[in-house]
Amino acid sequence: MIRDIVSIDEDVCDGCGRCVPSCAEEAIRIVAGKARLVSDRLCDGLGACLGHCPRGAIRIERREADTFDEAAVGRHRMSASAVSRDPARRPGAGRERHVPVVFPEHQGCPGARLDSWATAPAGALGSRPGDDQRRPTDDGAASDLRQWPVQLRLVPPTAPFLYRAPLLVAADCVPVAFPDFHRALLRGQALVIACPKLDDRRGYVEKLAAMIQENETPAITVARMEVPCCGGILQMVLEARDLAERNVPVEEVVIGIRGSAIARRRHDVEAASSS
């Protein structure tokens, strides 16, 4: 098919590697001293890598290319994550508490730019000197969001704010329906959101498994709506935990359509295997 896709001029590229971490799909690698696109199927064509090339070697072109395949992206990440099982090479390995993580200036897709701004406990999140724990909004309320982006499709498993952070996996409707979302659920958590009914779920299980594997995730909370179709988000997390082969406690919080938390359930590995 004809579509937008990344093109890298190898004659201009000097192999600095600044484009590599900016690609959420991990579709760019340094090979023989040059940045190269691993596969057309791994590139979504959004151009998050553009602003990171100091030599201007990357551009978006419209040409015949294989269709972007999110399931292939998930498999690719899982394969790459095998390297990260070595603790010395995990994201944030050896990181001291409150050491700031500085992300380069981003000039590509704003939605794919990684950022974190909270002072995190136990080094769980990258922080910057002088940042407040919670930022007040105009009406005096305080947001407990500590990162960007939040959409599961846009958050790479290697995002620094995921390292050793409890993970909140929330259905898209939960923050709208549940008025106490920030205080009762989000505070102290790294966040990813997704819709199990409307999103293309290919690759989500693999991505969540890679997050669990690579970041020593201590606990996961799944916040979903009471409607039956929303149960798919819990199933994705439980499948990802099995795939990652890590005994991570999972708590399910069910939110009613009228805005109250109506149920809490734990899904321990032992309980799941004995049922």
Describe what this molecule looks like in 3D:
The protein is α/β, with parallel strands linked by helices and 275 residues long. The protein has two domains: 2-68, Alpha-Beta Plaits, CATH 3.30.70.20; 89-103 and 112-274, no CATH class. The chain is 20% helix and 21% strand. It contains six helices and 13 strands. The chain has helices at 70-84, 174-177, 181-186, 204-214, 232-244, 269-274, and strands at residues 2-8, 28-31, 34-37, 58-64, 115-116, 135-136, 142-143, 147-148, 167-171, 190-194, 220-225, 250-255, 261-267. The strands form five sheets. The protein has a five-stranded mixed β-sheet with strand order 10-9-11-12-13. It has a two-stranded antiparallel ribbon with strand order 1-4. Strands 2-3 form a two-stranded antiparallel sheet. Strand 11 (220-225), helix 5 and strand 12 (250-255) form a beta-alpha-beta unit. Helix 4 packs across helix 5. The longest helix has 15 residues, at 70-84. The radius of gyration is 19 Å and the shape is elongated. It starts with a strand and ends with a helix. Residues 82-108, 119-134 and 271-275 have low confidence and may be disordered.
Q: Which key phrases capture this entry?
A:
275 residues, alpha/beta, Alpha-Beta Plaits, 2 domains, five-stranded mixed sheet, two-stranded antiparallel sheet
